[in-house]
Sequence to fold (241 residues):
Amino acid sequence: MNTIYIIIALVIIIGIPISIFLIKAHLRWKKIKEKADNIKNEKIDSIISAIENIGECEPTAAILIKDKENQYSNQYSISIPSFISSPWSGRKIEFELSNQLPISIKDDSSINAIGNCIYRAIPAPRIKLKSGKEQNTWSVKRYLNRSPELKTIMSPIESADQEEALKYILGPTIRVLGGIQWAQSAEYPKCEECNGKMTFLLQVPGFLFPNKVEFDIHESEIYVFSCIKHQNNVQKVIQFY
Fold:
């Protein structure tokens, strides 16, 4: 019995500080989230403008930012924005929520809708490196470091918490053209018609889709590709974390 009492005492001694820490962390994040929601509601256009102003070169890629609720809750499509010079500009990728998540490419562009959310496409800031090369940047930390304007917008939140707050405001990273972030090793598909290496079009986190397919989509990252010679040919690669 003494052993049981000792174990119970140890659980209490260890558990109480952990519980207090978790409660404090939850309350702290709740306050940060409330401030971040206020900033987004009042200054989302200013945030987008500040991010766009970071760019030093013509954009070659886009970021999708969660904008508002979508009345068409069963719509899953992402358009290639017209502000990027690409053979696929003005076209859209549609996802079908069945089996292995079939995809297709259409000639019309429409809203970027993932379930009940509409996303706004903005240019991914493209900067010049010291070497003279150009590079897209996707890092929220770099956005804050490179933009005094953005730091000012986020100033109601403590500096140490601004990065996480801005990530929350911008939402999950959806990349369109350029800058693949592989969940595993690089995996470029080949065109079924010419056997050529396909071009990356977009990357979407699987957890944005409902679990209505034949694989664990919430643990996946979805990559869509097309062929420069056969632009109606689209394929996807699914990698799991």
About this structure: The mean pLDDT is 89. The first strand starts at residue 62 and ends at 69.
